[in-house]
Amino acid sequence: MSRKEKIARSIVRAITKTNGLDRRPSNPVALILALFSTVFSLYQLVLRKIRPADFANLRRQHWDVNDDDYAQSFIAQGDNGGDAPLKAIGDMGFSGSTFYSTADQKYLVKSLPRHSEHSFFSQELLTPYVQYMATNPRSLLVRICDFLVVTGPSIGRMLRSAPSHHIVMDNIRYGREEAKRKGEADWENWDLKPTSYFYPERDIAGGALTSEATKKQLADEFHDKIILRREQAEDFFSNLEEDTKLLAEYNAVDYSLFLVRMKKPQEAAVQDSPATKLQSSMIPGEPPSVPPSPPSWRTGVASADGKHIFRASILDFFWAKHKVHAKAMTVLIKLWNLLISRHGDMSITTSPDEYRERFLKMCREIVEIRDD
Protein backbone atom coordinates (compact mmCIF):
# COMPACT_ATOMS: atom_id res chain seq x y z
CA MET A 1 0.00 0.00 0.00
CA SER A 2 1.42 3.40 -1.03
CA ARG A 3 1.94 6.42 1.23
CA LYS A 4 -1.07 8.26 -0.19
CA GLU A 5 -3.29 5.20 0.21
CA LYS A 6 -2.30 4.87 3.87
CA ILE A 7 -2.98 8.56 4.51
CA ALA A 8 -6.36 8.17 2.80
CA ARG A 9 -7.22 5.19 4.99
CA SER A 10 -6.52 7.28 8.11
CA ILE A 11 -8.87 10.00 6.88
CA VAL A 12 -11.64 7.54 6.03
CA ARG A 13 -11.38 5.90 9.45
CA ALA A 14 -11.68 9.26 11.24
CA ILE A 15 -14.80 10.18 9.26
CA THR A 16 -16.63 6.87 9.40
CA LYS A 17 -15.87 5.59 12.91
CA THR A 18 -18.29 8.07 14.52
CA ASN A 19 -21.12 6.86 12.29
CA GLY A 20 -21.09 3.23 13.34
CA LEU A 21 -19.22 2.24 10.20
CA ASP A 22 -15.87 1.45 11.80
CA ARG A 23 -14.93 -2.07 12.75
CA ARG A 24 -12.81 -2.39 15.90
CA PRO A 25 -10.73 -5.45 16.80
CA SER A 26 -12.98 -8.08 18.42
CA ASN A 27 -10.41 -9.69 20.76
CA PRO A 28 -7.50 -8.55 22.99
CA VAL A 29 -4.78 -9.97 20.74
CA ALA A 30 -6.12 -8.13 17.71
CA LEU A 31 -6.39 -4.96 19.77
CA ILE A 32 -2.74 -5.21 20.90
CA LEU A 33 -1.58 -5.80 17.33
CA ALA A 34 -3.62 -2.80 16.16
CA LEU A 35 -2.07 -0.56 18.84
CA PHE A 36 1.43 -1.80 17.95
CA SER A 37 0.77 -1.07 14.29
CA THR A 38 -0.49 2.41 15.14
CA VAL A 39 2.53 3.37 17.24
CA PHE A 40 5.03 2.24 14.59
CA SER A 41 3.10 3.51 11.60
CA LEU A 42 4.76 6.08 9.37
CA TYR A 43 1.75 7.15 7.32
CA GLN A 44 -1.44 5.61 8.66
CA LEU A 45 -1.84 7.89 11.67
CA VAL A 46 -4.79 8.03 14.06
CA LEU A 47 -6.90 11.11 13.39
CA ARG A 48 -9.73 12.61 15.40
CA LYS A 49 -12.29 15.29 14.66
CA ILE A 50 -11.87 18.78 16.09
CA ARG A 51 -15.13 20.42 17.23
CA PRO A 52 -17.23 17.61 15.69
CA ALA A 53 -20.49 18.94 17.16
CA ASP A 54 -20.03 22.35 15.53
CA PHE A 55 -19.32 20.93 12.10
CA ALA A 56 -22.12 18.38 12.44
CA ASN A 57 -24.51 21.22 13.27
CA LEU A 58 -23.44 23.13 10.16
CA ARG A 59 -23.94 20.05 8.00
CA ARG A 60 -27.30 19.05 9.44
CA GLN A 61 -29.00 22.31 10.30
CA HIS A 62 -27.62 24.72 7.72
CA TRP A 63 -26.40 22.70 4.74
CA ASP A 64 -28.98 19.90 4.77
CA VAL A 65 -26.34 17.15 4.67
CA ASN A 66 -27.52 13.84 6.16
CA ASP A 67 -24.99 12.18 8.48
CA ASP A 68 -25.27 8.77 6.85
CA ASP A 69 -25.04 10.20 3.34
CA TYR A 70 -21.98 12.19 4.36
CA ALA A 71 -20.22 9.15 5.82
CA GLN A 72 -21.23 7.03 2.82
CA SER A 73 -19.20 9.29 0.55
CA PHE A 74 -16.12 7.99 2.39
CA ILE A 75 -16.99 4.31 1.92
CA ALA A 76 -15.62 2.20 -0.97
CA GLN A 77 -17.91 2.40 -3.98
CA GLY A 78 -19.01 -0.33 -6.39
CA ASP A 79 -20.69 -3.69 -5.97
CA ASN A 80 -17.60 -5.28 -4.40
CA GLY A 81 -16.23 -2.15 -2.76
CA GLY A 82 -13.54 -2.12 -5.41
CA ASP A 83 -13.25 1.62 -5.88
CA ALA A 84 -11.20 3.42 -3.23
CA PRO A 85 -13.29 5.88 -1.19
CA LEU A 86 -10.60 8.56 -1.53
CA LYS A 87 -8.55 9.26 -4.63
CA ALA A 88 -5.39 11.37 -4.61
CA ILE A 89 -5.61 14.35 -6.97
CA GLY A 90 -3.24 17.09 -8.07
CA ASP A 91 0.30 17.40 -6.74
CA MET A 92 1.91 18.43 -3.50
CA GLY A 93 2.07 22.14 -4.40
CA PHE A 94 4.23 24.77 -2.68
CA SER A 95 2.77 24.04 0.76
CA GLY A 96 3.31 20.28 0.62
CA SER A 97 -0.42 19.67 0.91
CA THR A 98 -2.03 16.41 -0.08
CA PHE A 99 -5.38 16.48 -1.88
CA TYR A 100 -8.04 13.81 -2.13
CA SER A 101 -11.49 13.56 -3.65
CA THR A 102 -14.20 11.18 -2.55
CA ALA A 103 -15.13 8.65 -5.21
CA ASP A 104 -18.55 10.29 -5.66
CA GLN A 105 -16.81 13.69 -6.14
CA LYS A 106 -18.88 15.39 -3.44
CA TYR A 107 -16.05 16.23 -1.06
CA LEU A 108 -12.38 17.17 -1.12
CA VAL A 109 -9.82 16.60 1.61
CA LYS A 110 -6.83 18.92 1.88
CA SER A 111 -4.00 18.65 4.39
CA LEU A 112 -2.68 21.67 6.29
CA PRO A 113 0.98 20.75 6.88
CA ARG A 114 2.16 24.16 8.11
CA HIS A 115 1.77 24.78 11.83
CA SER A 116 1.07 28.46 11.20
CA GLU A 117 -1.94 27.55 9.06
CA HIS A 118 -3.64 24.85 11.11
CA SER A 119 -2.98 26.64 14.42
CA PHE A 120 -4.50 29.84 13.03
CA PHE A 121 -7.61 28.02 11.88
CA SER A 122 -8.09 25.93 15.03
CA GLN A 123 -7.24 28.59 17.60
CA GLU A 124 -8.49 31.82 16.02
CA LEU A 125 -10.65 31.47 12.92
CA LEU A 126 -12.64 28.31 13.64
CA THR A 127 -15.20 29.81 16.04
CA PRO A 128 -15.96 32.93 13.96
CA TYR A 129 -16.05 30.76 10.82
CA VAL A 130 -18.65 28.41 12.31
CA GLN A 131 -20.77 31.30 13.57
CA TYR A 132 -20.52 33.18 10.27
CA MET A 133 -21.39 30.19 8.10
CA ALA A 134 -24.43 29.42 10.27
CA THR A 135 -25.85 32.89 9.67
CA ASN A 136 -24.72 33.51 6.08
CA PRO A 137 -26.06 30.70 3.87
CA ARG A 138 -25.04 32.48 0.66
CA SER A 139 -21.42 32.95 1.74
CA LEU A 140 -18.78 32.11 -0.86
CA LEU A 141 -16.36 30.83 1.78
CA VAL A 142 -15.73 27.16 1.10
CA ARG A 143 -17.89 24.89 3.25
CA ILE A 144 -15.63 23.02 5.65
CA CYS A 145 -17.43 19.89 6.81
CA ASP A 146 -14.83 18.49 9.21
CA PHE A 147 -11.41 19.29 10.67
CA LEU A 148 -9.13 16.33 11.46
CA VAL A 149 -6.01 16.26 13.62
CA VAL A 150 -3.55 13.49 14.45
CA THR A 151 -3.75 12.08 17.96
CA GLY A 152 -1.79 9.60 20.04
CA PRO A 153 1.91 8.62 19.87
CA SER A 154 3.42 7.28 16.65
CA ILE A 155 6.70 7.32 14.78
CA GLY A 156 5.01 8.94 11.80
CA ARG A 157 3.83 11.84 13.94
CA MET A 158 7.33 12.46 15.35
CA LEU A 159 8.98 12.25 11.92
CA ARG A 160 6.19 14.22 10.21
CA SER A 161 6.06 11.63 7.48
CA ALA A 162 2.33 12.22 7.01
CA PRO A 163 0.16 15.35 7.37
CA SER A 164 -1.10 15.99 10.88
CA HIS A 165 -4.14 18.12 10.00
CA HIS A 166 -6.78 17.85 7.28
CA ILE A 167 -9.90 19.77 6.31
CA VAL A 168 -12.87 18.16 4.57
CA MET A 169 -14.70 20.57 2.27
CA ASP A 170 -17.41 20.42 -0.31
CA ASN A 171 -16.44 20.24 -3.97
CA ILE A 172 -17.98 22.86 -6.24
CA ARG A 173 -16.83 20.81 -9.23
CA TYR A 174 -19.31 18.13 -8.19
CA GLY A 175 -21.15 16.92 -11.31
CA ARG A 176 -18.18 17.30 -13.63
CA GLU A 177 -17.62 13.58 -14.14
CA GLU A 178 -21.29 12.99 -14.87
CA ALA A 179 -21.21 15.81 -17.44
CA LYS A 180 -18.19 14.20 -19.12
CA ARG A 181 -20.00 10.85 -19.27
CA LYS A 182 -22.85 12.60 -21.06
CA GLY A 183 -20.39 13.87 -23.65
CA GLU A 184 -20.64 17.52 -22.58
CA ALA A 185 -17.72 19.92 -22.81
CA ASP A 186 -15.28 19.58 -19.95
CA TRP A 187 -15.61 22.17 -17.20
CA GLU A 188 -12.94 24.83 -16.84
CA ASN A 189 -11.61 26.18 -13.55
CA TRP A 190 -9.25 28.89 -12.33
CA ASP A 191 -7.63 29.54 -8.95
CA LEU A 192 -7.51 33.34 -8.92
CA LYS A 193 -5.44 35.72 -6.81
CA PRO A 194 -4.32 39.30 -7.53
CA THR A 195 -1.34 38.90 -9.86
CA SER A 196 0.04 42.41 -9.26
CA TYR A 197 1.94 41.21 -6.20
CA PHE A 198 5.59 40.17 -6.18
CA TYR A 199 5.96 36.48 -7.06
CA PRO A 200 9.67 35.54 -6.85
CA GLU A 201 9.17 32.49 -9.07
CA ARG A 202 7.80 34.77 -11.80
CA ASP A 203 9.50 38.13 -11.22
CA ILE A 204 13.14 37.38 -10.37
CA ALA A 205 15.21 37.29 -13.58
CA GLY A 206 11.98 37.20 -15.57
CA GLY A 207 11.24 33.72 -14.25
CA ALA A 208 14.33 32.24 -15.89
CA LEU A 209 15.53 30.69 -12.63
CA THR A 210 12.37 28.67 -12.08
CA SER A 211 10.94 25.75 -14.02
CA GLU A 212 7.73 26.07 -16.00
CA ALA A 213 6.15 23.41 -13.82
CA THR A 214 6.79 25.56 -10.74
CA LYS A 215 5.44 28.70 -12.37
CA LYS A 216 2.27 26.88 -13.39
CA GLN A 217 1.50 26.43 -9.70
CA LEU A 218 1.15 30.19 -9.27
CA ALA A 219 -2.21 31.92 -9.39
CA ASP A 220 -4.18 31.56 -12.62
CA GLU A 221 -5.43 34.43 -14.75
CA PHE A 222 -8.94 34.61 -16.17
CA HIS A 223 -8.71 36.25 -19.61
CA ASP A 224 -12.43 36.59 -20.12
CA LYS A 225 -15.53 38.04 -18.48
CA ILE A 226 -18.34 36.69 -16.33
CA ILE A 227 -21.37 38.26 -18.01
CA LEU A 228 -24.02 38.94 -15.37
CA ARG A 229 -27.26 40.81 -14.97
CA ARG A 230 -27.01 43.71 -12.55
CA GLU A 231 -28.83 41.93 -9.72
CA GLN A 232 -26.55 38.90 -10.12
CA ALA A 233 -23.45 41.08 -10.02
CA GLU A 234 -24.65 43.00 -6.97
CA ASP A 235 -25.32 39.73 -5.13
CA PHE A 236 -21.86 38.46 -6.08
CA PHE A 237 -20.07 41.63 -4.94
CA SER A 238 -22.12 41.85 -1.74
CA ASN A 239 -21.18 38.31 -0.73
CA LEU A 240 -17.52 38.95 -1.53
CA GLU A 241 -17.54 42.14 0.54
CA GLU A 242 -18.97 40.40 3.60
CA ASP A 243 -16.77 37.30 3.32
CA THR A 244 -13.52 39.22 2.90
CA LYS A 245 -14.50 41.60 5.71
CA LEU A 246 -14.48 38.62 8.07
CA LEU A 247 -11.13 37.40 6.73
CA ALA A 248 -9.51 40.82 7.03
CA GLU A 249 -10.79 41.16 10.60
CA TYR A 250 -8.81 38.05 11.52
CA ASN A 251 -5.70 39.06 9.50
CA ALA A 252 -6.09 36.46 6.75
CA VAL A 253 -4.34 37.08 3.42
CA ASP A 254 -3.46 35.12 0.26
CA TYR A 255 -6.91 33.52 -0.15
CA SER A 256 -8.15 32.86 -3.66
CA LEU A 257 -11.34 32.79 -5.72
CA PHE A 258 -11.91 29.35 -7.22
CA LEU A 259 -13.97 29.84 -10.35
CA VAL A 260 -15.67 27.07 -12.33
CA ARG A 261 -17.18 27.57 -15.79
CA MET A 262 -19.43 25.11 -17.62
CA LYS A 263 -20.45 25.46 -21.23
CA LYS A 264 -24.04 25.17 -22.33
CA PRO A 265 -24.88 21.54 -23.27
CA GLN A 266 -25.55 21.10 -26.97
CA GLU A 267 -29.03 19.72 -26.34
CA ALA A 268 -30.07 22.48 -23.93
CA ALA A 269 -33.20 24.24 -25.16
CA VAL A 270 -32.82 28.01 -25.26
CA GLN A 271 -35.97 29.90 -26.14
CA ASP A 272 -37.77 32.36 -23.89
CA SER A 273 -35.47 32.26 -20.86
CA PRO A 274 -32.01 30.91 -21.74
CA ALA A 275 -30.51 31.53 -18.33
CA THR A 276 -33.26 29.71 -16.41
CA LYS A 277 -33.36 26.68 -18.73
CA LEU A 278 -29.59 26.43 -18.87
CA GLN A 279 -29.38 26.56 -15.10
CA SER A 280 -31.96 23.84 -14.47
CA SER A 281 -30.26 21.53 -16.96
CA MET A 282 -26.84 21.61 -15.28
CA ILE A 283 -27.25 22.01 -11.52
CA PRO A 284 -27.17 18.89 -9.32
CA GLY A 285 -30.20 18.79 -7.06
CA GLU A 286 -28.62 17.19 -4.00
CA PRO A 287 -26.13 18.06 -1.26
CA PRO A 288 -23.45 19.30 -0.93
CA SER A 289 -24.60 21.75 -3.59
CA VAL A 290 -27.68 22.99 -1.71
CA PRO A 291 -29.01 24.83 0.27
CA PRO A 292 -29.55 27.65 -0.39
CA SER A 293 -31.86 26.84 -3.25
CA PRO A 294 -30.46 27.47 -6.73
CA PRO A 295 -29.32 29.72 -8.17
CA SER A 296 -26.32 30.43 -5.96
CA TRP A 297 -22.60 30.63 -6.58
CA ARG A 298 -22.27 27.18 -5.02
CA THR A 299 -24.91 25.53 -7.22
CA GLY A 300 -24.32 27.63 -10.31
CA VAL A 301 -25.27 31.02 -11.71
CA ALA A 302 -26.20 31.31 -15.38
CA SER A 303 -24.46 34.02 -17.38
CA ALA A 304 -26.67 36.75 -18.78
CA ASP A 305 -25.95 35.62 -22.35
CA GLY A 306 -27.08 32.03 -21.61
CA LYS A 307 -23.76 30.52 -22.70
CA HIS A 308 -22.28 29.42 -19.36
CA ILE A 309 -22.92 28.41 -15.78
CA PHE A 310 -20.47 29.74 -13.19
CA ARG A 311 -19.65 28.53 -9.70
CA ALA A 312 -17.32 30.28 -7.28
CA SER A 313 -15.85 29.78 -3.84
CA ILE A 314 -13.22 31.46 -1.65
CA LEU A 315 -10.43 29.05 -0.72
CA ASP A 316 -7.20 28.89 1.29
CA PHE A 317 -7.88 31.49 3.99
CA PHE A 318 -5.40 29.96 6.44
CA TRP A 319 -2.43 32.33 6.06
CA ALA A 320 -2.56 34.93 8.86
CA LYS A 321 -0.33 37.99 8.73
CA HIS A 322 0.43 37.93 12.48
CA LYS A 323 1.74 34.33 12.66
CA VAL A 324 5.48 33.73 13.11
CA HIS A 325 6.02 32.28 9.62
CA ALA A 326 4.25 35.24 8.01
CA LYS A 327 6.25 37.74 10.09
CA ALA A 328 9.51 36.09 9.07
CA MET A 329 8.56 36.24 5.39
CA THR A 330 7.58 39.89 5.77
CA VAL A 331 11.02 40.75 7.17
CA LEU A 332 12.75 38.88 4.34
CA ILE A 333 10.75 40.70 1.67
CA LYS A 334 11.42 44.08 3.29
CA LEU A 335 15.15 43.33 3.25
CA TRP A 336 14.93 42.21 -0.37
CA ASN A 337 13.20 45.44 -1.37
CA LEU A 338 15.69 47.51 0.61
CA LEU A 339 18.91 45.83 -0.47
CA ILE A 340 18.30 44.16 -3.83
CA SER A 341 15.27 45.19 -5.85
CA ARG A 342 12.05 47.08 -5.18
CA HIS A 343 9.40 44.54 -6.10
CA GLY A 344 6.93 45.42 -3.37
CA ASP A 345 4.96 43.03 -1.19
CA MET A 346 4.10 39.42 -1.85
CA SER A 347 0.49 38.32 -1.38
CA ILE A 348 1.58 36.67 1.88
CA THR A 349 3.38 39.72 3.30
CA THR A 350 0.93 42.52 2.51
CA SER A 351 -1.62 43.84 5.01
CA PRO A 352 -5.05 42.16 5.29
CA ASP A 353 -6.91 45.32 4.27
CA GLU A 354 -4.66 45.94 1.28
CA TYR A 355 -4.98 42.32 0.13
CA ARG A 356 -8.76 42.52 0.49
CA GLU A 357 -8.83 45.70 -1.61
CA ARG A 358 -6.84 44.13 -4.46
CA PHE A 359 -8.80 40.88 -4.24
CA LEU A 360 -12.15 42.67 -4.54
CA LYS A 361 -10.79 44.79 -7.40
CA MET A 362 -9.72 41.61 -9.23
CA CYS A 363 -13.19 40.11 -8.77
CA ARG A 364 -14.91 43.23 -10.08
CA GLU A 365 -12.65 43.38 -13.12
CA ILE A 366 -13.63 39.91 -14.34
CA VAL A 367 -17.36 40.78 -14.30
CA GLU A 368 -19.24 42.47 -17.13
CA ILE A 369 -22.70 43.79 -16.25
CA ARG A 370 -25.55 43.76 -18.77
CA ASP A 371 -28.67 45.73 -17.98
CA ASP A 372 -30.76 44.55 -20.94
From TrEMBL:
Segments of skewed composition (Pro residues): 285-295
Composition bias type Polar residues, residue spans: 273-282
Source organism superkingdom: Eukaryota
Domain PIPK, chain residue ranges per copy: 1-367
Pfam families (alphabetical): PIP5K
Transmembrane segments: 29-47
Keyword Ligase found: no
GO MF: 1-phosphatidylinositol-4-phosphate 5-kinase activity; ATP binding
Keyword Nucleus: no
Swiss-Prot/TrEMBL GO biological process terms: phosphatidylinositol phosphate biosynthetic process
Region of interest called Disordered, as start-end residue ranges on this chain: 270-298
GO cellular component: a single term: plasma membrane
Keywords for this protein: ATP-binding, Kinase, Membrane, Nucleotide-binding, Transferase, Transmembrane, Transmembrane helix
PANTHER family named in the record: PHOSPHATIDYLINOSITOL-4-PHOSPHATE 5-KINASE, PIPK DOMAIN-CONTAINING PROTEIN
Entry protein name: Phosphatidylinositol-4-phosphate 5-kinase-domain-containing protein
Organism: Corynascus novoguineensis
